[in-house]
Structure formats: structure tokens, C-alpha cells
Amino acid sequence: MDTKVFAHHDHAACQAEGIAVAAAVCAQKGLRLTPQRRRVLEILLSRHRAMGAYAVLAILRGEGMGNQPPVVYRALDFLVKHGFAHKIERLNAFIACTRPGAPHAPAFLICRTCDTVAEAHIDPGGGTLGDEAGAAGFTIERTVVEALGLCPKCRDAA
Amino acid sequence: MDTKVFAHHDHAACQAEGIAVAAAVCAQKGLRLTPQRRRVLEILLSRHRAMGAYAVLAILRGEGMGNQPPVVYRALDFLVKHGFAHKIERLNAFIACTRPGAPHAPAFLICRTCDTVAEAHIDPGGGTLGDEAGAAGFTIERTVVEALGLCPKCRDAA
DNA sequence: ACTTGCATTGTTATATGATAACATCACTTA
DNA sequence: TAAGTGATGTTATCATATAACAATGCAAGT
Ligand SMILES: [Zn+2]
Ligand SMILES: [Zn+2]
Ligand SMILES: [Zn+2]
Ligand SMILES: [Zn+2]
Q1: Is B50 in contact with B88 (CB distance < 8 Å)?
Q2: For an engineered disulfide with B107, which of A88, A121, B75, B120 has Cβ 3.0 to 4.6 Å away?
Q3: Is residue A1 predicted with pLDDT exceeding 70?
Q4: Does residue A54 have a pLDDT over 90?
Q5: Is the pLDDT of residue A36 over 70?
Q6: CA of B53: nucleotide with nearest C1'
Q7: Which residues 19-78 of chain B have a CB within 8 Å of chain A?
Q8: Is the model's pTM score more than 0.85?
Q9: Does B143 contact A139 at a Cβ distance shorter than 8 Å?
Q10: Residue B103, pLDDT score
Q11: C-alpha–C-alpha distance, residues B114 and B128, integer Å
Q12: Pairing label, strands B93-96, B117-122
């Protein structure tokens, strides 16, 4: 799990690696990491928080890289579709993936005080829910798992 | 788990019980299950599907029980706050609780074909995620767990 | 009955999140 | 060059949710 995000870490490396991996995966799969898409990913990578589409759009606007909602939604759709970003349903917001390229079932730890979001990885068919789904004949294709609470730093501060 | 919702069952009993339990809990806790709130709960209980706030509002309108968004959002807030309904984050929609009154951590199985939603119950601090959160010092207060896939009926039909 | 306080409801307006539709541009390939 | 495809620009609109304030209803205490 990437709970390092709750503590000090080499964040410049986070960002650089995120972009580098995305670029490598795109090159390998024949996808086009266009300037807009790359910039949106950079924006998401700039912090370990989820950002709303319109917050991203505001930044793009300031840089002359797009003025209308579809611009940012298209970029976000691309990033989410290919696993470079995730949508946090609870927040209607988006965050860069910390394990891009590799297929995985993400889960998120969301601090209600500082809004930091850590990405964990789970077995989508595992646990109690997987057992019950199996017993009921329900086929799980995708999971949304988001835990809300307090990160260690904010808990200690309280 | 209430996966009976994927098959034939005595649904009239579902509805009657939902209302009866809500009324009993409200009486016991000094809450007011007003006509509007009761009616919204009845609407949610009418099917094992999540309904958008505006879909509920459309029904209320047809019955002269409210014309503006705040009417339905207030009723939904009340029902969610006191555990008579849940919000499905993935769908921006609401569903009646199948275990009202008792505190619980719900999880949902959402069929992408027929839109039926079953409510399961999980241990919020259990499983891989709970372990990882504990290891990271993250305190889980609430969980959003939504599995998307195919219910047995729709899978057999495919 | 009166009044005081508080929860609920009515209503207007607006904020926030997301997509449809269509024109234009750019890059690839025949 | 021409056609085909994917990406971008742009307008308009839809969908979801809340702020703010007025009016009403209800209960407790006098
Ligand atoms: Zn980092
Ligand atoms: Zn925090
Ligand atoms: Zn039923
Ligand atoms: Zn189904």
C-alpha cells in the first residue's frame, strides 16, 4: 500500500515516476499522451489529494490549455480508462494512480481532515463481500472501495 | 446478506417491514417520520433499485407532496442520517436500507444490467484493507463499498 | 390560552458536476 | 492527395446538490 503519502516522502520522485510510467505505457500500447493529457496527469500528481474536474480545468485555463469542461473530462476519461488515474466516487473527484500500468483493484483511504488520499490494493473477489457475492451467484466485475477516516498525522494532532 | 432481492420474494412484506421498522425506530428515538419522509421511504422501498433524488422528486410532484429539490434532499438526508436509507455513491442515487435501526457497515452489489442493488454487511475494519489501514495508522470511520457486476439472473440470461 | 423555542416545510436562486452535439484540426496511411 | 481516424475547440444543456430566508407547525412551560 502507498501509505507513504501520509508522511514525508520524496514527492518529486512520485511525480516524475508517474509521468515516466504513463509515457512508457502509452508508448508501449500505442496510446497518445498528448500535452493536455500529460498536463492533467501532472496536475493530479502534484498532490496526494483528489481534485474535482473543475479545479483541474481552472488550472488549465490559467495556462491557456483549455477553456471548456469537455477538455478536462476528456483528458480525465483517458487517464481513468487506461489506469493512470482513478475517480473517487465519494468526492466526485480524481486522483493519480500510484500503480499505473498494472491492472489492479484499487481501494482508498481518505482523511476527512487533510483530504489526503492513499491508494491501497485489494483482492476484488476476496473477503466477506466476495464470499457473499459468490454464494449469491453475483459476478463482481469492478469494486468501489473507499474508507473515510483520519490519517495518522491528523489523528495525532487531535 | 439480502441477496433474496435478486430472486422472487415477498416484496410486499419488504415494503411493509421497512415502513414498520422505521416508524418503530422513530417512535423509540423521538424522531418524526413526517408524511413527506414516510412517502420518500415508501418510494425507495417500492423497488430494490437506487433512485436519483430527482426521480423521487418527480413522483412527489405528481402527488402534490413537494415541488422543489430541497424537499426531497431534506427527506433523503433524514433517512440516510438515521439509517433508513443509503446513498450509492457510484450512482449518485439512494436506496432503502434492508437493516434499518441497527448500526451496520453496508456494502452493495449492483447489477449493471437490471440495476438491482443488494445490500450486504461487512466488518468495516476487517479484511486486507482493514489490516493495511491499521498498519498505516489510519483510523477508518466509515466505508463506501460498492461492487459492480452481474446478478445471477442477468448472468444466466447472457 | 399565550408565548417562546425549535424543527419542519415552502420557495427562490444558485452552485457544482457531467455530457450531447457538431465543427475543426492533426496525424496516419493508402 | 485523399480518406479515415483520433483529438481538440466550442456551444449549449443536462444532472446533481445546496445556500438562504421566509413561513408554518408543534411542543413545553407558564
Ligand atoms: Zn508523493
Ligand atoms: Zn490527514
Ligand atoms: Zn423486496
Ligand atoms: Zn441483474
Answers
A1: yes
A2: B120
A3: no
A4: yes
A5: yes
A6: D16
A7: none
A8: yes
A9: no
A10: 87
A11: 30
A12: unpaired
Give protein residues whose Cβ lies within 7 A of nucleic acid chain C: A 52-55, 68-70, 73, 77, 87, 92-93; B 31-32, 34-37, 65-71, 74-75, 78
For residue B108, the chain A residue with the least C-alpha distance is A129
Closest residue by Cα to residue A132 from B87, B141, B153, B106: B106
Over chain B (158 residues), the average pLDDT of each successive run of 10 is 85 95 95 97 98 98 96 98 97 96 92 95 86 94 96 92
State the first-to-last Cα distance of chain A, in angstroms, to the nearest integer: 24
pLDDT in tens, A130-140: 999 999 999 99
- CB contact (8 A) between residue B136 and residue A3: yes
State the burial class of residue B120 (Cβ atoms within 10 Å of its Cβ: 0-12, 13-18, 19+): buried
CA dist list (Å): A37 to A5, A73, A92? 23, 10, 19
| Domains with residue ranges and CATH for chain B | 4-157 (1.10.10.10)
